[in-house]
Amino acid sequence: MMIGQFFRHAKLLTSAAALLAATAGAAWAVASLDAPNTDGELVMRRLTPEQYRQIVTDVFGKTITLGGRFEPDQRYNGLLALGTGVVSATPTAIEQYEGMARVVADQVVSPERRDTLIPCKPGNAKAADESCATAFLTRAGRLLYRRPLTADETRSWVGVANESATALKDFYAGLSTSLSTMMVSMPFLFRQEIAVPDAAHPGVYHMTDYAKASRISFFLWNTAPDDELLRAAEKGELETQKGMAKQVDRLLASPRLEAGVRAFFTDMLGFSDFDSLAKDRAIYPKFSGKVSRQSEEQTLRTIVDLLVSNGGDYRDLFTTRKTFLTTTLASIYRVPLPRVTPNTTDDAWQPYEFPADSPRVGILSQASFLALHSHPGRSSPTVRGKALREILLCQKVPNPPGDVDFKVVQDTSNPIFKTARKRLGAHANEPMCAGCHKITDPLGLALENFDSAGEFRGAENGEAIDPSGTFDGVKFTNAAELARILHDNPNIPTCVVNRLYTYGTGRPLLKSEGPAVDELKAAFAKDGYKFTQLMRHIALSDALYRVPTPPKLLDRSTAALPAGFGKEAQQ
Amino acid sequence: MKSRHTLLASLLLTSGAFIVPQVAHAESRSYVVNWFHVATYRQDDDCPTGLNLAQRPLYVRILNDLGYSGSDIEKVLDGIPDDGGTDARGRQAREIGTYRGRIDGKEVDVYSHPYSVPDPKIKLAMGKFANGFNLDGKPAKSLESSVDPETGETGIDNQVRRVMGCSVQFHAKLPDRPGYPSNEWDLNRDTVPAWLMTITGDDLSKDGDVAITFDRALEPVQRDANGEVMPDVTFRIDPDAHAHSEAHGNITGGVLRVASPFHFQMTQDVNVVADFKMDQTQLRMTFNSDRSLTGYIGGYQPWIQVYAQFATLASGTEISYGTDLPGMYYALRKLSDFDPDPRTGENRGISATYRMELLPAFTAPRNVNTASAPASTSSAQK
């Protein structure tokens, strides 16, 4: 590549990045952590890493690899999904997006893939070809933007492709430049949900059909709408309940529902924390990185098997003994699990059911929950109890005061306070601590038979562990009994309805949505707490697509690239 | 919760079905071998004249025996690291050592033909104590017999310890493992099928009779976060009869012993010959609070097999272990104490004891798909 050509190429990309930064910056002011979205505005949500990966896979195939790193998402009101509506993209993130986009685009136009992924061939591969560029960019752009490109957008992106192809004397390099630039633009990186005036009801707004299609798709599949869903939006089919039901049921019946369910529970259960989970290897030598990753996967498989494959009752997650293990993970549970076939690896998953007398009951007794909510070198009834309250019961537990003395709690070798119960008992004698510990500790102490790595133990420092306690006035003697109590606690299903609904809307629950959510809760109970039915109810509820108050809207013209962008790039 | 062991379990495994351990009647615990090496551990006053030559001094002696002058020796060894190194100069020196044997005036590989050089008369371990067993039932009668430092048992027969006990890499002090053999063991854990031991009895927490089986697994061990052998992993048993041994035993006071000597055989593990055989075998293993088992297995082995298992590493053993291999050969032959050849009268077997350390594991038959298959469990919820 000639130096002059390189600089022209670089200039195009730089312009796109600057555009993204400028455009996004204007939009971010709408919502931030400091000014939470409480009036029901539609939010722009940044794609999660998994969504980004999946869209690239959906549009260009499984073999496309990504380079670069994603900026971490932020948890807000218990969900990363809500955090994606209040985060921006730092200059570093934009650099990463740009790098990834170039890597993806170069693979798409590579000689081994271009015949498959590009629907036409240029008349001259060493020159611009407007017709072929238009064919490719409008097709790819529709899937990447989750709606058809506007005329301005088409003109802009084709212009970028032509200019670059001419400068570089390479049609495919031009296409790659345009595609990679498109992939660092706002409509791709952020889920822009557009509301438009309702012609039949002056003063009322509703989401566009494409915005609805995106909501359904990200909600149920955790990815962008597929061609069929976009086509339904295009035809106006999503404006009727019947049309919506047809698409929602299609998505629910698809194997891709698993990805959506996994995404929700990965978010709700805080599994992103596995990325930074570490245990003291001297104390928990079994808890390797492999075991850590597999314990996360075990719980997700348990959830998918119960809720999706078997259409099960959400509450049974707390009492099921059925799960999946690898021979490696079976070591944590101290259960026999031979390889099934000579070629089965240690990492192969097998269905497993804990025996009736096993203390392993439900997902709370799985290594994922136990390890994630413990300290690196010791278990923590307080942390576990807090997690249980906040994540699964949607109850807020106050943070500890800043000047707490944790010495007694942390001293696991204390000869007097041999068990966590005794250490916490001594600690909770402090009046300033007692209040919160009464909320958290009884639940967490029930799980003390499981150490920080999730292994079973009957005693701590030679003293038998007492896992008994009381929850909401009901006594239990061990974790299995607590699991049964939680199963029957009405706050368990109520919490997941709230979580799933806000996961769908991307913002905290509004007071005005109370009746709609109450209806969802009632329907959930009526359906026997079938989780996929709850997903269906939410996906088909008007509430999910409601635009409660006239928001600060982006109209169709601002959703497109600014007029003249392509021209500016050509200067 | 009261500690208890899962009873002999069986696995119901059909395609797509969940595995449910079933309770049966006897208790069974399985273990995976985490260390198996000759018990030549350091004892008080065992090598009063020092250890055998190792590394560079051993090279110097070998070259000196070959007639190299002092200056020639310096030339050969100049710049070579103590362990012989792996570069061209190191290889050259190793080749000289390897082909120092002479048969009919021709150079031969001394490790394959240890009798091709004169007996260098390596230093033998002495002293009162040796880990092992009284294999011949003759208490402290022979000059070779010793006292076991852990049990106080007299008449210990462990001639291999006498042969190797004054070589630097066989002279570790318990509970340490000898450095070089330990590295070698570790290097090969990921590729060599694991060895397994299973104990079955009515209640293994109490004294009583038990059945003991040894098997080889189809899989190697798995590693934990520290790179050590991971306990509580399930291994499929290799159905090869050559990798299976059985014994009757008993547990008394938390120590497992065999009721009567048995024949022990196993195949292919590192530091052990491809076909490991031991007669008149005895066993003494202690149940530890961390669920591991540690102890010894001893008996009589063909002394040529003992030589072979170390000679296969050739100069690696000689230089790094600090054992002149022809010297080992002559000593093993000389100190052999079992199975006289009816034709020559020369003993073919030698008493040996191996240190064995085991971790809890699960075992299952090779083909778990075909039927309800018993799986022994050692480590149930405890």
Describe the structure.
- By secondary structure, chain A is mostly helical.
- Chain A has two domains: 3-192 and 554-570, no CATH class; 270-487, no CATH class.
- In chain A, 52% of the residues lie in helices and 5% in strands.
- Chain A has a two-stranded antiparallel ribbon.
- In chain A, helix 1 packs across helix 4 (91-108), helix 13 (257-268) packs across helix 14 (289-309) and helix 17 (381-392) crosses helix 20 (431-445).
- Chain A starts with a helix and ends with a helix.
- Mean pLDDT of chain B is 85; it is low at 1-24 and 369-382.
- In chain B, helix 1 crosses helix 7 and helix 6 packs antiparallel against helix 8 (325-335).
- Chain B is 19% helix and 32% strand.
- The termini of chain B are close together.
- Chain B has eight helices and 15 strands.
- Chain B has an eight-stranded antiparallel β-barrel.
- In chain B, a hairpin with a 2-residue loop joins strand 3 and strand 4.
- The longest helix of chain B has 11 residues, at 55-65.
- Classes of the chains: A mainly alpha (571), B alpha+beta (382).
- The interface between A and B is large, with 42 and 41 residues.
